Here is the input.
Amino acid sequence: MSAENTAAEKTAAENTVTEATDVPVTAFMLVKTTRAWLDKTPEERMHALTTEIVPVVEAKTTGVRSRFFDTEFYSARVTDVWLWEARDHQAYQLLIDALRETPFWDHYFEVVDLLVGTENGYARNYGFDTAATIST
Here is the structure.
């Protein structure tokens, strides 16, 4: 094996690592509301969210967005799912750090589980079309 081939293989491996870390991160945060949250009126909940949680997330993160899904109608273990999308792993880590510094984490919500992944990672890694993403 020549030195040129070894250098080219090393560069290709470094590029693969860079590409893998630049992929957006998606996290499904499964939470259960606590008594502290449920004892608040809906107006108090909205006020807590907009004054205690959102400003901290906005101040300490960039490149993240969230979507919220109510599940308490169908599950006793998980009352809500927050879908968080982050531009990269660092943005996601900053998000988690920010949330942990607010009453969101373990005061208003118990974080039951975190399911973190990248959309269509398998297809991207092997150069396939995203056959698992279906739209009819």
Notes: The first helix runs from residue 3 to 21. Helices lie at 3-21, 35-38, 42-60, 89-100, 121-126.
